[in-house]
Every structure is written in structure tokens, then in C-alpha cells.
Write a structure and sequence with these properties.
This protein has helices spanning 3-14, 22-38, 57-60, 135-140, 158-162, 171-181, 209-223, and strands at 69-74, 91-96, 109-114, 120-126, 131-132, 149-155, 205-206. With 224 residues, the protein is of the alpha+beta class. α1 (3-14) crosses α2. The longest helix is centred in the first third of the chain and has 17 residues, at 22-38. The chain starts with a helix and ends with a helix. The mean pLDDT is 83.
Amino acid sequence: MGEIEELESSILKYIEIDNITKTDIYKLVEFTNSYLEQKPNTEIREIDLDLSSYLTINLTNHFDESVNYWLKPIGVTEHPIETSRKFDEIEFDLHFSKLRPTGVKINDILICYGVGTGKVLSIYKATTLPIKVSEEEIEEEDWKKRWPWYIKGENLTIFYGANWPNYNFNIGLLANEYLNQNVSNHILANGSKSLGGLNWGKDKLRLSIGFAKFMIDKVYTKNK
């Protein structure tokens, strides 16, 4: 039995997901290889990688309304996100301002966009509660003084994140498209139809379920 067949057999034994495809199995092999490349000194017994979380079915077929969905900027006006930068890391630290992001909890979904381009960069799932950087970390990297809180995010759209500049998923354009199709709906959880809070320095906005699903579905069509 080859590597693909062995992996497929082991996954089918322990994951209760219907209609898993050979394409899904190849994708999981790539995630596994990427994980090991990023952690070359990791011993087998230390590996903690939940492959099931990388299957497209998690967000598209089983949209979870029990968690919060956030829109989060990455980058600042002085240092906008460059189109040469990729967002294909398996795990990524998502930083917040000096106010502890108390609303963000484990398993929440964060749709991140780049300051400057306004385009969606990738989608992450929160795997920790907010963590505050140490004084030693601030001494090593001064910018962390401005953004001292962070959560660890699991990248759910690695393939899209590697190619995000190729798609015109600008958050303003997406908001307009959604509202044009759903005139009576709103884009934020508080009932607002505006993303204006981001222009006033907010480090996150909680999205309405409808708009979050709209954006996630758009990104996932390019993540396959």
C-alpha cells in the first residue's frame, strides 16, 4: 500500500466525514509535508497536527453559527501589506492593539485583510485565548509595544493565502456586492451596514453571520 493509500485509510478510520475525496487526501499530504518542513527538529511523538481541520467541508458544508466571525486588518498605514507577501503559514500570530481582545474566543473565525490593498489575505481559526507579549519580546521587536496582544491562528485557507494577490476580494467591494444582493441585511453583528469602524483604528469588527458566510464562500472557491 502506497503513502496516499495508507493516509487515506487512517483518516477514514478516525474522521467521521462523508464523501472524502482523493483530492482531499492529496491536500492533507501537502499540509503534513508543509508542517514538517516548518518544524524540521520536531520528533514524531511531539507532532500535534489536526488534519481534519484543513478539509474544505469544515466551513462550507458545516458553517458553525455558535462561534464569532471577525474581520481583522493586518498591517498598518505606515507599513501596508505588499503583494509579494504570502500568507500560507500553517500557524500565524494575529496581533491586536493595547486593548485585550476579550471578544475573541477559541474556534472563532478571523477573516484577515491587508491594509493598503484592502484584499482578503487568508482565513484563520483562533486556537488560543489572547496572549500578551513579554517585555523581552518588545525589546526584541519594538512594534509589539503597539500590538501587545495576540492569538494563535490556524490557517484554514493556505492555498488561497499563497495566491491572494491574484483575486480581487477587496473587503469594500465584497460588502457592496453583499448589500446589493441582500438589501434588507447588514454586514456587522451589531446591525451596521458599514465597515467605517476600521477607518477609526479598530483592530477587528464582528461580522454578521450572513456576510461572513458570503466572504468565506468566495475565498473557498479559490482555495481548492
